[in-house]
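Figure 2 data, in text form.
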Amino acid sequence: MLIAFNKPFGVICKFRPEPGRRTLADYINVPNVYPAGRLDTDSEGLLLLTDDGLLQARIANPRHKLAKVYWAQVEGVPTEAALTSLRNGVDLGDFTTKPAGARSISEPTNLWPRDPPIRYRAKIPTAWLELTLREGKNRQVRRMTARVGFPTLRLVRAAVGQVGVDGLAPGTWREIDAASPWTERRPHANATSR
């Protein structure tokens, strides 16, 4: 079984109860499924869950180089030099990121309102980036954008491989065919599933 879930902001990526906090158990009542990878509590968007340990490892393990597409709302308007740095790899001190897809985009039209909304400051513009990574270190996107001078205000995972978040409202999920997105077809480096 493979489940695509649109994780809302503030939900912890585990099933065990956390007093006063929302977890996956508040949304998904399916036995024996576990997240394939994770998504930080302050991030939102696509989270895949499965009951198949081999599939879970294939999705989550960076050695399989499965593309993960993120939409990041950043503070400021990124320069071409910042985008080039993101594409080439960013030295974060403890490691240097692998080359990634990075481009400026308009705010996604299929994006839902965040609850709570990000803090709005009239004198500081924001912009949207689409980043495609094939690795997934802790808080990597946020660290990358901050390092090039444009801190992330909102982070949404839009796709993993061929599976996208389209059509899923926050807090909802759907079962998807576990075979089709992961066998034979491999996404192109800049492919998105939207």
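Caption note: The first strand starts at residue 2 and ends at 7.
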